[in-house]
Amino acid sequence: MKVLLKNVIHTSSSQPKHSTDILIENGIIIEIANSINSSADKIIEHKNLHVSVGWMDCFANFCDPGNEHKETLETGANAAAAGGYTEVMLIPNTNPVVYNKSEVEYIVQRSKNLPVTIYPTGTITKNAEGKELSEMYDMHTSGAIAFSDGINSLQSSGIILKALEYIKAIDGIIIQLPDDKNIAPNGLMNEGIISIKLGLPGKPAISEEILIARDIELLKYTNSKIHFTGISTKKSVEIISKAKKDGLRVSCSVTPYHLFFTDEDLKNYDTNLKVNPPLRTKENMLALREGIKNGSIDFIASHHQPQHWDDKTCEFEYAKYGMIGLESVFGVAGICGIMSIDFIKMQTENIRKIFNVELPQIKTGAKANLTLYDPDAEYIFEEENIYSKSRNSPYIAKKLKGKSFGIINGDKLFLNEIN
Asked: What is the pLDDT, as a whole number, of residue 417?
């Protein structure tokens, strides 16, 4: 199949924007020129159409196997493609949990024909229970890109110490969601004035910060690699920034919802805003935005967590954690004041460097790995923009800025706005 992109604005952090035509045949870029007059099976042309190297995400749950009523590999991949992602790392919190090579191989094989390249993340411990190390080496050889217990924060210092030492042999990396569950284990939202007013048990910022500080000390001891995802406080950014300056191999990512919402948005008990780590104060939210702008935060992780209608349409106390978000990450970043060129650098270069994934190139002879988008489009996010099987999004009816039109990933084309 031949695909011709007409008058697309090529963007990257290493060179100025410039407009070109790009001709792709059977998934390979065969020509880049100011003007290409060639027949094609699909001609794509749109006002203010930008193209960049395909975006990547590191923390999404496609619920497959075991919870396909929430999401499947197919619907999750479509949601990612609609959001502009060509590559997605999946957390291992499925049923069964991805803690051995057979589960990794299941995801690798099942996802081969999807429009998005899927990278399984294997657990650090068996069944993500935090008690005994999993078969990390076997999972690595089968295709696991990193290791994490996903939404189950690793609590044991001894276990994470062993894991950090173990992965050095394969140049691996640990992903940790920072949450000390021994501190306010029943907390439902950020501890503060709003939690008191709402009568909900709070979870203090220190439950996140103390775990980050502990793991950085273990990292210093082992000289290994760790990535913190979902950081939500100003102090967390400061602790990680200092560790980077000290030469430790540490990185971090923030969710789009911690950049957009604060604990004040919970006044109506919106269960779609029940997340972990919880939404923090405005001061913390602004500190996260600043961390993006000054480079302290490496990239944005979607934390795409589909939940069934029954798990969100209930009392706040009983609602499950998480929201979907792959379709809306770019628009959220734009409305939060993050420049599109900074977003592109984070989601193409930074994330791939951290997880040792080769950066695609937009050049003749290269495999097409492209995201198509308009950085200036302002629109109201509606349910019709959702490709996920679940609908637990708090962004519905919210104004966003920046829209993805779809992706080209090899010989796979996914367009959600261009006909």
From this structure: 67
Query: What CATH number did the domain enclosing 163 receive?
Result: 3.20.20.140
Domain span holding position 130: 54-354
Q: Are residues 242 and 272 in the same domain?
A: yes
Nearest to 294 by CA among 248, 342, 226: 342
Angle at 81 between CA 6 and CA 373, to 5 degrees: 40
Q: Is residue 316 domain-shared with residue 371, that is, in the same domain?
A: no
As a whole-number percent, the residues of the chain with pLDDT over 90 amount to 97
Write down the pLDDT at residue 158.
Answer: 98
* 14 confidence band (pLDDT: 50, 70, 90): confident
Task: Please tell me the pTM assigned to this model.
Answer: 0.97
- Phi/psi at 359 (nearest 5 deg)? -80, 120
